[in-house]
Amino acid sequence: MATESEQIDLVVQVLKGLPAKRLRIIELANEVPIVNGHPDTRFLEEHAEDIEAAATEAKAYGGATLQATSALMFVKAISER
Questions:
Q1: Residue 8 lies in domain
Q2: CA angle, 25 as apex, 23 and 30 as ends, to 5°?
Q3: Nearest Cα to Cα of residue 57 among 12, 14, 26
């Protein structure tokens, strides 16, 4: 069983691994022009590489968030024993 200090270290380690909260995908989504009620496909094609990188970043953030949540749930479960 992990000590309280080890539990805290685990949570801190996981939280340090989280990327910055400001995700590029949100910024890019706000930059997409709307033409006739639809996203500008030319803009999307021209920025495809940036959009793909931003999507990858968002997926990593989601994974790191799940890992942090799991670590916190683990600490809570241990502390309730």
A1: 4-79
A2: 110
A3: 26
- Whole-model pTM? 0.60
Residues present in the chain in total: 81
pLDDT tens string, the chain, 81 residues long: the values are: 667 777 777 777 777 776 667 889 999 999 999 999 999 999 999 999 999 999 999 898 888 788 877 877 776 666 666
DSSP secondary structure of 4-72: HHHHHHHHHHHHHTSPPSS-HHHHHHHH--EETTEE-HHHHHHTHHHHHHHHHHHHHHHHHHHHHHHHH
